[in-house]
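Researcher: Before we compare anything, I want clean individual predictions. No alignment, no superposition, just each chain on its own. First chain goes here; please echo the sequence and then give the structure tokens.
Model: Echoing the first chain and its structure:
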Amino acid sequence: MTKIVTKDIEPNRRRGGDLRTLLSPATAGTTSGFMGVLTLEPGEVVTEHYHPYSEEFLYLVRGEITARIDGEPVPLAAGEALHLRINVRHRLENDGTEPAFLVFQLGPLAPRPELGHVDTEPLPHQESV
């Protein structure tokens, strides 16, 4: 058994938002997938990407977001869940006035971590000003 405390995990802000992978091969020795949490402040996004090996399951605990699935808007409210199939492009946007808090899970694992995500738009820190 492995217990992970959210505040002890450094946030990954590479694609936007405050994403913390809690249970993974690196943190808990998982072998079939990983899970974590995401906080999106008003105006924040997670840039568009897809997973060539994994399905993704999202559960919106608090707030409201728009998920853009292959470019089409899908509104989500607290208490709603979304299943993203392998190879489906998705982007998450908080265009509301309150922070949004989500739990996510992906599985199965990609053969190597660097193969798990394919970015399809510039990352926030790479956009020119």
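Researcher: Okay. Second chain, same rules.
Model: Second chain and its structure:
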Amino acid sequence: MSFITVAPDSHFPIQNLPYGVFSTSSDNTHRIGVAIGEYVLDLKAIKHLFNGPVMQSQQHVFEEATLNKLMSLGSAAWHETRQTLQSILSKDQGVLRDNAELQSKCLIPRNEVTMHLPANIGDYTDFYSSREHATNIGTLFRGKENALLPNWLHLPVGYHGRASSVVISGTPVRRPVGQSRMVDDKPPVFGPCKILDFELEMAFFVGPANNQGEPIPVQKAHEHIFGMVIMNDWSARDIQKWEYVPLGPFLAKNFCTTISPWVVSMEALQPFMVANPVQDPQPLPYLRHSDPYSLNVDLEVGIKAEGMDKPAVVCRSNMKNLYWTAKQQLAHHTVTGCNARPGDLMASGTISGPTPESYGSMLELSWRGSKTIPLAPGVERKFLQDGDEVVMSAHAQGDGYVIGFGSCEGKILPALNFP
């Protein structure tokens, strides 16, 4: 228990303590904080309290404007930092509880802060790791008999995304413009995307780097995974349909990717690790691991159209619906000797479940536009319209507490006018 009052349904109890980067109106310096209840704990203001055997010589990382250096320190530093934070915030520890002056400097109401990207993201990779999603998309475009391509059950399929357009939750999303060809026997046209979609994903940040030429073995991959965020990998489906052959997504994905601001550590998520899915055929040895690394985390997507009071839930899924684990994704990504770096972002791909209400994209929910999704009386959608706001959330239910990720939100703005 913390000496700070935390509501039972709060996403940020003492069992969580996710990291983020924030500023305030009185101090626009970007600095590292931890969410606890309705507050942000400013780690720069209490860096002197991190005096354990690992972090005493690393207190400078809490003066950084991003989490990259903390991410680079590795699991021993992360564990000690978390233990120190839980001690500082404990109801049984007086170092902060009994120091009103220090509290006034380091505890800031969350509604008074502005959140920023938690890391300098050097590279971003998007995987395609939900079997249900891959099957649905394959069925829609190739037919049920060819739904999964021959490689899908043998390796975590992925592509390199665009790191520069990753934005923090709350950032508006401009409808993209590009080429599309809606009628197969007509020439392509140029203009605003007509089939804009969300993709419900989760993503992890890489911790310590590996040297170029030295793969990260799957048995040690967890030592290189710092924590997770919610991700909305916005997709321009009509642009994608025209451009993706033969090299895959390009402009359809490079215009915006939204992430939630709070990075939930893998240690906080450890109690929610569950058995990995049975993989048949068995993957090659470099991808095999028996320790549980799938997560029982509930996911939800809502859409709030203009004029609506609150979002209408259109999808409920779970991270258990991923076929490939984060450890397998990282091991596969680096098996060539590719060097991952602290702050690199790696996403799961759309997380769809086995039932229609668990489909993680409008493409699936509307079954390629063949049916509508009701939002409110007289309001329905097949794909996203200007003014729509997409709100994603994620949480794991513990015994008397919740480990939450907050929300991942973005509102769609009209395309810019082009001559």
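Researcher: What stands out in the second chain?
Model: The mean pLDDT is 97. Additionally, The radius of gyration is 22 Å.
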